[in-house]
Amino acid sequence: MRIAVYPGSFDPVTNGHIDIIHRASKAFDKLIVVVLNNSNKQPLFTVAERVELLQKSCESMEHIEIDSYSGMLIEYAQMKNAHFIVKGLRAVSDFEYEFQMALMNRKLNTEIETMFLMTCDRFSYLSSSMVKEVARYNGDISELVPEIVEKKIKEKLA
Ligand code: PNS
């Protein structure tokens, strides 16, 4: 069974993430989307809220599992018997950081490959931080996130 892990902060999940989940799910028997801690970020949503938003946004998709973990990604992938980590790449600016993480994860476990999917062009400017920024100023985020996420951001920032 080909199992892959798609990790991220997902604070909150955007249509860019959904596109990657949808496309990656076709390449593996099982795709586990896992909410992890990014020590450089201060999240707006709790882990439980982020998991719930992912679950609701992906409920129509097959071969997907949503989970969270408070430790290291590579440890989690090993525990789940996943041999692949999937990441999305939006722009050259993502590359250096992602490259460093992929190399570090390979150093920690050579059996687990990181694979990158190029973002769909219409989501190349999209990030959770941008979505939160636009929402803070009451901008229209309806085309950037699933409906449930739009509703929850508005409640959170009200
Ligand atoms: O969506 P993000 O914030 O870019 O995702 C980054 C994330 C959460 C995947 C990364 O910070 C991570 O893997 N955190 C878990 C801790 C870990 O394994 N750190 C070592 C990375 S080389």
Can you characterise this structure?
The protein is α/β, with parallel strands linked by helices and 158 residues long. It is 42% helix and 18% strand. It contains 6 helices and 5 strands; from the N terminus they run E-H-E-H-E-H-E-H-E-H-H. The chain has helices at 15-25, 47-57, 73-79, 92-108, 128-136, 147-157; strands at residues 3-8, 30-35, 64-68, 84-89, 113-118. Strands 3-2-1-4-5 form a 5-stranded parallel sheet, sandwiched between helices. The longest helix is centred in the middle third of the chain and has 17 residues, at 92-108. It is globular. It starts with a strand and ends with a helix. 4'-phosphopantetheine is lined by residues 7-9, 36-38, 41, 72-73, 101, 104-105.
From the structure above, extract its key features.
binds 4'-phosphopantetheine, single chain, 158 residues, 5-stranded parallel sheet, 6 helices, alpha/beta
What are the secondary-structure elements, in order, as H or E?
A: EHEHEHEHEHH
Helix content: 40-55%
How many helices? The count is: 6
Instruction: Give the distance, in angstroms, between the N- and C-terminal Cα atoms.
Output: 45 Å
What would the principal axes of the Cα set say about the shape?
globular
Average pLDDT works out at 96
> What would you call the structural class?
alpha/beta
**Unreliably modeled segments:** none
Total strands:
5
Q: List cofactors, ions and other ligands.
A: 4'-phosphopantetheine
- Strand order within the widest beta sheet: 3-2-1-4-5
Percentage of residues in strands = 15-25%
Biggest β-sheet description: 5 strands, parallel
Measured on Cα atoms, how large is the radius of gyration?
15 Å
